[in-house]
Write a structure and sequence with these properties.
alpha/beta; Rossmann fold; seven-stranded parallel β-sheet; 9 helices; oxidoreductase activity; NAD(P)-bd_dom_sf
């Protein structure tokens, strides 16, 4: 039976990954801070799909907790076939405010350092076995300049690309997922008012996850959902930097008004 370890697996995109894997008969290891919610989600998935669900409470901003998750990934007596590095949160704060330093530091710990440590642990174990899939949830924001969040997601994207190249020929693949606006509680938690975003911009999280898993199975280095976001990333990556900077200023200004 295949297994997947998902960080941040009880909400948002991570929960969508958990539901999709469970529906395919894949056993799960769910990692999150909220132990009560972990247990509730685990029991729900067991009942609905008959899969084994292991819960691993951990705060990925705490190095000892990250080390415990890494050890689970490297335990060859209980092999993990998929790692979904998903845990994270939005940053609706300025990089100028000294009062926000702690939240920026936490963001770097959870969405960069933990990703680096867990990706490396999974890659070593999977490489030894000759197969495995690593998915890192980055963002379309990696192509623009919305403060520290864009910087973090650009790092995650670059890291995943580098990992994929290093794993070439090993039977292990690494895929960066680059979603745009996905209908989850993510934006509410970040304090971002998304009420004026047109409906056609939004992505369904279940569709997003299915496409990502298909892309990962094909060994694609990046997974971008939907034609409109593929176009947006192409413009962001290859269009004039002046256009990208202008768009970022407009987006940032609109958020400040809400």
């Amino acid at each position: 039976m295949a297994s997947a370890l998902i960080t941040g697996g009880t909400s948002g995109i991570g929960h969508a990954f958990a539901r999709e894997f469970a529906s395919r008969g894949t056993d799960l290891i769910l990692v999150a801070r909220d132990e009560a919610r972990l247990n509730a989600v685990a029991e729900e998935l067991r009942q609905l799909h008959g899969v084994e669900v292991e819960v691993l409470p951990a705060d990925l901003a705490v190095r000892d907790d990250v080390a415990r998750v890494a050890a689970r990934l490297e335990d060859q007596s209980r092999p993990v076939d998929w790692l979904v590095n998903n845990a994270g949160f939005g940053l609706h704060s300025t990089v100028l405010d000294p009062d926000d330093i702690d939240i920026h530091a936490r963001a770097l710990d959870v969405m960069c350092l933990a990703v680096l440590i867990l990706g490396g642990a999974a890659a070593r174990a999977m490489k030894e076995r000759g197969h495995g899939r690593i998915v890192t949830v980055a963002s379309s924001s990696s192509a623009i300049y919305t403060g520290n969040y864009s910087a973090i997601k650009a790092w995650a994207r670059s890291y995943s690309n580098g990992l994929a190249l290093e794993l070439t020929g090993t039977g292990v693949t690494a895929t960066a997922l680059l979603p745009g606006w996905v209908r989850t509680e993510f934006h509410d938690r970040a304090g971002i008012n998304a009420s004026k975003i047109p409906d056609f911009i939004w992505i369904d999280p279940d569709k997003l996850v299915r496409e990502c898993l298909d892309d990962a199975e094909k060994g694609k280095i990046e997974s971008v959902p939907d034609w409109k976001w593929k176009l947006a990333l192409k413009v962001g990556d290859h269009g004039p930097r002046t256009l990208t900077r202008w768009f970022t200023r407009v987006l940032t200004a609109s958020r400040k008004r809400h």
